[in-house]
């Protein structure tokens, strides 16, 4: 497992070996020992696994969970390909407002760990791209928030996206500044405490 510490505090990517032959491929997108070695703690207790399927050109996010309760995620793409973005939305974080991009695909089997308070977005590059979310708790709609992926202050390189392929929530999402003014963003230390980081 190739582990990379990303440019956002507490975020990592994990790229496992992919074994291919004439039948297809086999890989293991999560290994507890690799996660614990990188982060210094075990992965959260899994409470829910979800996935979505997206048409090519679909942009989803920037999504995050209100803190409290907060929610970390472990995300990978078993089919298709996406440009995956993490955005640090934690007030007071040394990497606040910074984003990192990863290429996630069924071919590379790369996964990312998204810490509590960090936003997530992706742009589907292939038809039928699948994103799997491993999470510590169930989805509660009222806790799920959004920041605009088009906010120039963040500057995600998503290009021209067909507005018809965006959800209503993403179209009406506030900017980073507006989210902060509305009290939607959590403090860096609170997010770390919710994730059990000392």
TrEMBL record:
CDD domains: cupin_RmlC
Keywords assigned: Isomerase
Record-level GO cellular component terms: cytosol
Active site per the UniProt annotation: 63 (proton acceptor), 133 (proton donor)
Site (Participates in a stacking interaction with the thymidine ring of dTDP-4-oxo-6-deoxyglucose): 139
GO molecular function: dTDP-4-dehydrorhamnose 3,5-epimerase activity
GO terms of biological process kind: dTDP-rhamnose biosynthetic process; polysaccharide biosynthetic process
A matching Pfam family: dTDP_sugar_isom
Family in the record: Belongs to the dTDP-4-dehydrorhamnose 3,5-epimerase family.
Protein name in UniProt: dTDP-4-keto-6-deoxy-D-glucose epimerase
Native source organism of the sequence: Streptomyces radicis
């Amino acid at each position: 497992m190739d582990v990379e510490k990303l440019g956002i505090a507490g975020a990592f990517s994990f790229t496992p070996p992919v074994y291919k032959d004439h039948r297809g491929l086999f890989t293991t997108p999560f290994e507890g020992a690799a996660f614990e070695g990188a982060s210094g703690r075990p992965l959260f207790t899994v409470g829910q696994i979800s996935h979505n399927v997206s048409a090519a050109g679909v942009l989803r996010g920037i999504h995050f969970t209100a803190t409290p309760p907060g929610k970390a995620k472990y995300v990978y793409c078993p089919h298709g390909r996406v440009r995956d973005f993490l955005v640090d939305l934690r007030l007071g974080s040394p990497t606040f407002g910074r984003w990192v991009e990863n290429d996630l695909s069924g071919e590379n089997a790369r996964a990312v760990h998204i810490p509590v308070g960090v936003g997530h977005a992706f742009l589907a590059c292939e038809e039928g791209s699948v994103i799997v979310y491993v999470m510590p708790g169930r989805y509660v709609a009222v806790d799920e928030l959004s920041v605009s992926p088009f906010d120039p202050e963040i500057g995600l390189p998503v290009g021209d996206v067909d507005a018809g392929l965006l959800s209503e929530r993403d179209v009406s999402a506030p900017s980073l500044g507006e989210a902060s003014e509305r009290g939607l963003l959590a403090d860096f230390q609170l997010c770390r405490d919710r994730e059990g980081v000392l």
